[in-house]
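Troubleshooting: if your tokenizer reports a length mismatch, compare your output against this known-good record of 453 residues.
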Amino acid sequence: MLLICSVRCCRGWPNSLLAVPIIDLDTPPPAGVERAPLPLPRRLTPPRPARVLVVVLLTLAGLGAAAPSGRGIRHLLSAGGQPASAFVLSTDALFTASFGNSPNSDSAVRRWDLPGGALRWAIVLPQNVQNLVYDDASNVLMGRSGNEPMVVFLDAGTGAVLWRDQSPNTSVVNMFGGQALIQTAVADRLRELRLVDARTGRPVWSRELDATGYLDAGDQPGTRPTRIIAVDQAGHTIVLRYADGSVLAEGDLGVNFPVQLDSAFGADFAGVSAVGEVLYVSRRENGASTLTAWSIDSLIRRWQTAGGPVGWVVDCGAVLCMAEDGLVSALDPAGGRVLWQRSGLGYAYRYDDRTLLAYDQSDNPRSVLLDPRTGAVLARLGSVVQLREVLLRRDSVRIGRTWVQAYGGDGALHAVGALDTVAPFGCELRGPYLACPTTAGPTQVWRLPLHLT
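Known-good structure output:
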């Protein structure tokens, strides 16, 4: 069963409240660094690469042209003295969670105002907090425990506890627009979905669904969910309106899924993916493979193709992408025909209107830009982390430094500045603020130049 929840990697150590050192470094990166191998198209909004993403650990080399004067980043905040078990940014604050004296039973949660860096509030919660989610619409901060069904909803302005949910077999699927979608396993093959008000916990609607299959609940970061798609093990599918739980479409996909739906690739495989207005079912049974496209609004079959690759379908703009065992295939959205294939790649996804970003399967995955229509390599980026408009590259010469690259008005890639961190894969970007974990302990926050936000 695939549960679609946004989960941050956990980093936890004992913690105590510390003063907040504020540093202002408005220094541009040094001149003379190498130009990127090819000017790249400007990045648009980030797509969601795949339902299960590989966590990318990076060794990076190669920098863009030096940034013009005045385009440097500013270091704003060093939040506490130990690593955070979780952190999240809002448009004017950094929220952190750290394990307390007893990591299994309590956590300290803090709010640091931005850009000033002042500690506004700090509270101790009787639960471990390993994930934080912030909702702008309700100004609510949600804290989730690791393996325990303990969720707390806080007033982000004051730190006051608004309400809790400690129901067994319960998880929060997502929180957006002042509402939280919660699911609870109520029987062996049954789950209850309920939409609640994020500030009060008041129910908006609830519905029981089969718990054995696929669930898509609009988990694209930063977008308002509009529908929920649930597929059970027998292929029966129901599409619900997110706002009120009413049924938009219902039907059968004409296939029985194996017990381990969406499991790792094996002799038999079944994968369900929602891309745009289409639901794709990839199936391999007794060596025979099929890919079927269904209209989400009506659950009417659009097309089916046989004999091609299997895997989860990913949005790649002009084509559909599918990856299996080091082979990325590009498919025609009109009928599923294989247009091209490239070996040695772990996955690929839409980078912008003209390019795909793909990663290889090495120990330190390296990325390339591909032409979506031909699969040709347009540029080799090395190992990078992409956060919306910026790319993060760890310095291969000086340990403990990561470079921030972005596009200038000339359409070329430039180094904007450097960060004192070697862990760019754990960073988060929100508005003008970039937050990263560090090997030294404290979560660091920088302000990026306005033209990047």
